[in-house]
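F.,

This is the one I mentioned.
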């Protein structure tokens, strides 16, 4: 278990930026954390410690900041890294899941031959806000016969209740706001 002081140290490298990308949103900027090797390393260690009990066979990282954490964790845990991308970015045949946004809808895609049936995957992203992106990513794994071992985030915005959209799946977060 990470100590309170470790969490405190990591939190001090996450900057709250008011009114970005639109008025009323407090954006949690992780770039100061990435710019400090000690803090980034501590974040990866804490995420790795949360992931280990879930015994994932692979990691599924969500575009784009999820790639940063997913890549470091995949190497740290010696696990395969699969990518969830926005539409039109992956070159081979894809599977997709659409999901609702506040206004309109969006879509996540994976290469159709990436998920191994019955294998356990951990979904990785920097922030869970409303949970829509992570829930669509989890659905995309399950639709292809994979099992969602857990969904892990550096930051969870508790007040948005995103984990409710992931009901029935384990959810782990290092920092809570
Ligand atoms: P969600 O509402 O959970 O589907 O969030 C979608 C994506 O938006 C996540 O991958 C986050 O990286 C990003 N995001 C949403 N809200 C914030 C926020 N307040 N600060 C930083 N990133 C955010």
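My design for it:
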């Amino acid at each position: 278990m990470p100590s309170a002081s470790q969490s405190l140290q990591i939190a001090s490298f996450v900057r709250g930026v008011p009114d970005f990308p639109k008025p009323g949103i407090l954006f949690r900027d992780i770039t100061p954390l990435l710019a400090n090797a000690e803090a980034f390393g501590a974040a990866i260690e804490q995420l790795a410690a949360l992931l280990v009990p879930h015994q994932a066979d692979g990691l599924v990282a969500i575009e784009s900041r999820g790639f940063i954490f997913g890549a470091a964790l995949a190497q740290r845990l010696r696990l395969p890294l699969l990518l969830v991308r926005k539409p039109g970015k992956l070159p081979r045949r894809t599977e997709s899941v659409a999901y609702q946004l506040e206004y309109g809808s969006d879509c996540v895609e994976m290469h159709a031959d990436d998920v191994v049936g019955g294998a356990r995957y951990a979904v990785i992203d920097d922030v869970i806000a409303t949970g829509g992106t992570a829930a669509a990513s989890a659905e995309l794994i399950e639709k292809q016969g994979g099992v969602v071992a857990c969904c892990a985030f550096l930051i969870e915005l508790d007040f948005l209740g995103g984990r409710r959209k992931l009901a029935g799946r384990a959810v782990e977060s290092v920092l809570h706001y």
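Residues 140 and 163 are 17 Å apart (CA to CA).

Talk soon.
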